[in-house]
Structure formats: C-alpha cells, structure tokens
Design brief:
With 890 residues, the chain is of the alpha+beta class. It has five domains: 99 residues, Immunoglobulin-like; 193 residues, Galactose-binding domain-like (Jelly Rolls), CATH 2.60.120.260; 118 residues, Galactose-binding domain-like (Jelly Rolls, Sandwich), CATH 2.60.120.260; 348 residues, Glycosyltransferase (Alpha/alpha barrel), CATH 1.50.10; 110 residues, Maltose phosphorylase, domain 3 (Sandwich), CATH 2.60.420.10. The chain is 21% helix and 30% strand. The protein contains 15 helices and 46 strands. Strand 4 and strand 5 form a beta hairpin. The structure holds alpha-L-rhamnopyranose. The site of alpha-L-rhamnopyranose has 9 residues, from helix 3.
Length: 890
Amino acid sequence: MRPYELTCEGQVNPLGIDELSPRFAWKIPLLRRGIRQTAYQIVAESEGKILWDSGKVDSPQSIEVEYCGLPLKTRQKVYWRVRFWDESGKVSDYSETAWFQMGLLNPSDWRGKWIETGIIGGARVTAPAPYLRKPFQVKKPVASAELYITALGLYLASINGRSIGDEVFAPGWTDYHCRVQYQVYDVTSHLQFGENVLGVVLGDGWYCGHIANMDRQQYGDRPRLLAQLMIQYMDGSFEIVPTDETWRYTSGPILESDLIMGESYDARLEMSGWDTPGWNDTGWFPVHTVQLSSLNLVARKNPPVRRQEVLRPVQEPVELREWNRSRWIFDLGQNMVGVIRLRVKGERGRTIRIRYSEVLNPDGSLYTQSLRSARATDYYTLKGGEEEIFEPHFTFHGFRYVELTGFPGVPTRENIEGVVLHSDTPISGTFICSDPFLNQLQHNIEWSQKGNFIEVPTDCPQRDERLGWTGDAQVFIRTATFNRNVSRFFEKWMQDFADAQSSSGAIPPVVPKVFAFGQLEDGGPAWADAVLICPWTIYQVYGNRRILERYYPVFQKFIEYLKNTSVGWIRSHPDWVDQGNFPGFGDWLAQDGSGKVDGGTPKDLIATAFFAHSARLMAKIARCLGKSKDEQVYHTMFEKIREAFNRRFVTEDGLIVGRTQTAYVLALSFDLLSETLQEKALEELLRDIRQRDWHLSTGFVGTPYLLWTLTKFGKAKEAWKLLTQRTMPSWLYPVLHGATTIWERWDGWTEEKGFQDPEMNSFNHYAYGSVGAWMVSMIGGLDFDPEYPGYRHILMKPLPDIELDFASVDYQTPYGKVVSRWQKDDRHCWKWQVTIPPSTCATAWLPEAVGKEVLESGVPLPAVEMIEWLGEEGDAVKIRIPAGNYEFCW
Ligand code: RAM
C-alpha cells in the first residue's frame, strides 16, 4: 500500500519548471471499499539535504498540495516522496521517489544571446528556413548535459545529427511581444567525446509566418533563436555552449514553411551531415545577435504538440484525369489535423504537389473554397534514387482527403499516411452507449477536440483562421475536460489572457491577441467572458485553485470593465454601441429563422445575461478564495444586473425580448427569473421547440445551455428528443451525412442546398460539440459536484426515460478512475456497475428503483455496509457510496 502516479505541476518528473512553490499530486490505490486518505507526509530533498519535510499533515488532500520547503533555486533537482495514512489511521509505505527540476529562474541565468540570420521574407512572401550550427568540443567525461532552448518562430534541434525531444511546433504560441516559453531537454546521451555539433532549423510559425488571413511578420520579421547547452563534467567542472556570434547559418531544403500556406521542400538541397562533426561550413554565414531584453522567458506550462497517431487511407487512391496529368485523391476516412507522410520513388527534380481538403465536391475533386486564403499546399521535389520519405516540418493542415499531383506512376494507399498532431493532453474519459449515432457524435466531438487543441484552443484548423477564439473555447471547455486532461493546457492559456487584457480591462475576441483584432479591444459577451468561465471550469473539474488565485486581478479588472461600459447595468446598451463600440457576435450561427449570421437574439440581452453570469461567477470565485467582502460586492452586482435584465427584457407573462430559444435558455440557465416567471419562460421555450417540430434554433451562445436548462426544469424527455433529432438543425444531421468531426454550422452541408457559404464553413469546429458534457452527465450519469471541486464528491444520476439499453462512461478524476456502466432490459431491470475512486464519495440516484428490491453484488441494499440510504427522490432511490467497486441490480 503506497501512493502512486506522483506528479508535480501535472507532470511526471518535469524537467524545467519555474513555479516557485510547485504543486504535488498523487493517487492512492483502491484496495478496498471506503479507502481514503486522512493524512500525508511529503519529504523533498536535494543533494542529500532535506528541503522540506511536511511532517504528518492531517488532510485528505492529495492534489494541488503546494511545496512549502526551502526556497528553490535555478536548475535545482529535487527528489520527493510521499506516504499517506488511511481511514483507520494506518500509515502506508513511502511512494517511489519522484523528482522535478527547476528551470532558469533569473534572467541573468541566460548566457545565450538571441541570434538571427539574414533571411527575411516579406509581408506576403515566404522565406527559406535557416539552418544553424555550432561545433563544440567535449574533452572530459560528461556527467550530464541539458539544453535550454527557445525561439521566436519554431525550432527543431539536434546534436550530432540526432534530433532532440519529440515536440512539434516548439516553443509554442504565446504573445511574443512579451512572453515566450522555453524548453529543457536532457541531452546527456547525445554528447560524444571530441567534436560535437548543435544544429537548429528555424521555422516561421506564428511569430513571422501568416496568422489567420493576415500578412506574415505579425510579431517580427524573421525567426530568432536562444539556447544554451549546459554541460556538467564528471570532474565537477561546468561549461556552457550558448547561442552567440560564433554560430553560422545557411539555407537548405525547406524553401518555405508556413502554418497556413504549407511547406515547399526540395530534397536536392538536403545537406546530409550538416549537423554532425566534420561538416565543412566555410560557405555558411555568421549570425547576428539581437537584444530582446523586454521579452519574458518562461518555462513551458502547457503540454506540447506531439505526433499522436497515424491514419492510413481507407481505400486505394482515386484518379482524376486532367488533359495532361493525373490527380490522385486519397481518403483517410477521418477528418484529421496534422501532416502527411509521403513515400515516393522517382526521378530527381520531379515535384509533387500535395493539397488537402475536409470534403469533396460532387465530382470527387477537393473542396478547397472554404479554406479561403489558406494555400494549404505542400510541394516536394525529389532528389532521386531510393525511396524518399517526406513529412512537412513547420506546418499543419485540416483534412480528410489528400490530393497528389505529379506523382511518378500510379500511387497506392501505401504511399501516404496521415500523422495526427495535437497538444498532448492525455485521454481522460470515454463514453459509449447503445445508440451508434450518439457514439459517432461522441467520436466527432473527440476528433474536433484533437484537431483544435493545438497549443491554444482554436476555432478551426484548416482555413486561414486557426485562432484562439475565446467564445468557442468557453462553450466547449466543459466537454473538453471530460475527453482529455486539459488542466495545464488551459492554465497556460490563462497566462495568454493576462497578456491579452487591455489596460481598460477588456478581453479581446481571440487570445493570444493578434494584431488584426487589436482594434477590437473587447471580444464582447460570451467571448470575453471566457476569461472567467474557463478558469472556473478548470477549478471545478481539477480542483486547480491556483488558476483562480493567480488571475484574480485579471478577473477583477475585467468585471470592472463590464461595469464601466454598461449603461444602467445593461451591457452592450445601444447608447454605448452608438458610440462605435462592439456589441458582440450575438448568438453566432443560430438557425432561428432570423436569417442573420448572429441570430435574432438581441445583443444587449445576451450581453446583460452574461454580465450577470460573470458577476455571479466572480462572487463564487471570491468565496472560494475566502474574500468575503468581494463576494458580497459581486453578489450585489449580480442582483442589480438581474433586476435590470428583468426590467428591460422580460414581460410579466414571462415573454423575453426576441422570443428566441437562446433568450429563454440564458435567462433560465443563469437564474435571472423569479420562480413564477421561470415557469412561464419554460413554457415559451417549449412552445418554440414544438413549433419548430422539435428542433433547436440556438447558435454558439445558447446551444451549450439548451439541454441542461431543459433537464434542470424537469424536461429531460424533451432534451432527449432534441439530442436525437435527425433532421436539420440537429446534432445528428451531420452524423447521418457522414461527418467525422463537428461542423461549424448546423447547415454546413444540406441535402437541399449542398455546401453553405464558403466564406465561413468549417467542418471541424467544436462549439456544437459542447453537448458532449450533457451526454456524459445525463446519459452516462456522471458529474462533478460544484461544491467539491476535483470530483471529491461525485454525482451519479443517469436519466431514466431515454431510449437506450446501456451506457458506459469512465473517467480519470484527480483521485483515480470513476466508472458508471448501466444496462437495462425490456422489463426495466437495471444493472449498474460503479467504481468510485479512493478518497472520494458519490451520491447516486438509482433510476426507477423505488418499490423494487435493490441488490448490491447479490446482497439486498439495506444490509450492505458503508452504503448510506438517503431516501427516495421521484422514482429514484438515493444513496451515498464511498470509494469502491459496486454492482447494483434492481
Ligand atoms: C468565426 C470563428 C469563430 C467565431 C467567430 C465569431 O470566424 O471561426 O468560430 O467565434 O467567428
């Protein structure tokens, strides 16, 4: 019996962190029912010296435990272990020893200088990728070596021809005007006695490549590099190989590489051995150093993008003849994000063009119109000879179909594979049920999450956009947390929010803030509010309190901004908008019959509802941080906004201005109505749904709350009807038409009209996938209790009257795995398999159990120890269960 899965800052043995009081977490094994931690002890040491011995701390806490020892120093490596006391006061063995190592904590620790080359493109003209090299000598036996490295742009590093690390798109995307993340790699095994070479290839990335539909060079005109190799010798001496004037560069086979446009690679220009000793670099040029002293260098906080999986074409490529050449169309069977790996053998100098699309035109050709100005095309020029393998270096595409033009001879499906790239957020949940269409919907949600979690949460991965749209992310975050562990991913993105906030407190529509949207200081309702909704969700799901503490001043500034810009508590008030201010994107892409891209729900209504919601979140955050005065202030603010909302938008009959589903849903969901009005508003909402023959009409803003609201007010059957609706607009319409990801628009493609407006029609946009959280909670019967963040207390309440035979979810909570697997037969006999992780407990509602005998592992319920009978609720029996495995039948 001992703790396992020790993490520090959410990582196993992290190398290079800069949190001065890192947070520890561990799990305890599910050895028996009711097992829980009652106390713990952590011992942390460095070089034989104890830095921290917590002693026995009486606490159930096994996540987010802050280091409280001696101050940590630059590059200090700390070993730690933990033991726990269980519910009977018995102490466990110590865990295996884990470690973490600090990064470079002081700017003066950086000995490297920023270097750059003379290769610059233009605003719309791409440039070749520079290859940089630095030879150095190792003359003594090496004890350890670490590379500290970052770039403005992207980098790929190697030592002696062996690549370093497996990150893709390092160092990631931040607001490079003020901040860039660095990485640390253990490169001890890369070094050899005698001459060594450190080689780096730089890509444009977000720093100087195209961003969205804008020009290149948004942050700077060319990529730059900062690195230092730190070698510790066996004899105790120490050496640094920094970036400086002695580095040399040239250009090579990567003639251009741009995230949006694609990559051109001429294999004839390869310089095999350029990053190994002995290479003659006399023709290479000396680099220049640059001063960038105002730039913050911070350790990487988010999980890097990595290669995740490989897809193969589902059939042989199809030939499309042009008069003098062939195009070959490959189908990977899945709309994915990443690159391809091409295998080809042919004559030197031949160029293959590679294009990508998510869908096909009726004639079988690629539908690329909706990519807008994204060229999304790679070119590969063969060097000739043996089989060649090409995988682009500094670009990615969103696609299911791949077109090759200029291929020598007839390709087969063996010639390409799809390499899926995304932020390495570990899978945490699975959902499956007896309806194959809902399973496909869940599949599509997962794939839209993969494809749009690339460094930051993006709207789409294919067209000339791919931005950190705040609205989209807040809509989807709750669902995202089920599918994958996104705690660190969002924690880093919060830093981007802080960097993006303007001095007025406004939060822009996209984060990181990019220039073209700079004029739009304020992202508007439901977009800017992501600054509160996202961290609050991360806190609830992962118990991550630091995200609230750290960014509290950002939240406060934001809410002040809302207060200052609202007129009589009405946000986006016409008086304010008339002064040229932005009212918001509205209920984006709603199908409410208004015919407008921003729907027919009044913008000041949406805005004021979200203002209230944000004020209430602030009150909750203040409460959780123990700031009771603030809590009161924000609570009063909420009440005032609520009053103003009612005065302006709600009639005595419970009609709400606009009379759209979204208007009703927001008012109900955010508790803006009195009880009597709630009932009336609910009736109106249902009337609208019925009038539309059981169809939703909500856009980005209303959709995530729609089914929750219906369920909250006892209309689960109606919610189920909307979820399983097969005609447009509905979640299953795309599923029934072959979608493998979530579409941006309910009508992205329809039988009647074909493709929607190519100006805005992505087939990989996760917003409407926000229904995933509802499926998990209501079908799977698994939810967190907002009062006990991090799933300390789990709520298990599957909906009884839905037309399914079984559903199964499992989910990795911070304390361990929770499982809910139920099935029921025609006679309404239920079997429910449940696992509750150690140190947690659950309240479970056994549907349709009232009046029946409930057995747990064959034993009648009242006789089962440790299960607490809480009574009856409707036709459900309510019980409290501690950690353990259970099998209920009734
Ligand atoms: C579109 C984006 C995004 C949305 C904004 C308002 O261009 O794709 O999904 O949030 O508009």
